Amino acid sequence: MSKAEAMRLRAAAAATTLLSGAVMMLAGYVGHTESWTTAGSIAIPGGILILAAFALARRADGADRHPIARTGSHLARRAGAMAATLLSGGVMVLAGYAGSAWGWGLAAPLVVVGGLVVGVAFALDRRGVPPDRNAPRKAL
Predict the structure, then answer these.
(1) Nearest-CA neighbor of 24 among 84, 91, 116, 121?
(2) 20 to 30 A from 4, CA-CA: which of 12, 36, 40, 136?
């Protein structure tokens, strides 16, 4: 895979993440204005979208030939990424609720917090590249 294709995959992951956040905000808005049962049904596609965004990001890392580290620390980072993703989704639902109940000025800071938390989730999930000990070193 070329570097350009990896960049397209990362752009698609970013766009899908934004769409997921918008769907989760819609769920919070609908939860306040209509019913939480309907909001729960709306949140399901938001969760599917964020999982698709993670898959696109992992594929972009694979395009860069980043190896998958199947160590205990990698599994802990993946679990942390999932926890941060769930927290971010909850913050985005709260932002939609806040926008509906108290005004959109209060929703904006929550959207920023949700975006930062999902950014942390992507950073935790990203595959690390271990240093190549056999690579030639550059002279200073």
Answers:
(1) 91
(2) 136
Nearest to 85 by CA among 34, 51, 130: 51
Is-contact 133 93, C-beta < 8 A?
no
Of how many residues is the chain composed?
A: 140
- Please give the distance of CA 63 from its chain centroid, rounded to a whole number: 19
Q: Cβ contacts of residue 137 below 8 Å, gap of 6+? A: none
Q: Residue 93: exposed, middle, or buried by beta-carbon count in 10 A (0-12, 13-18, 19+)?
A: buried
For the stretch 56-87, pLDDT in tens is 998 887 755 555 556 667 788 888 999 999 99
C-alpha angle with apex 111: 61 to 12, nearest 5 degrees?
A: 30
Four-point Cα dihedral 105, 111, 112, 117, nearest 10 = 150
Alpha helices in 34-103 (DSSP H): 36-63, 72-101
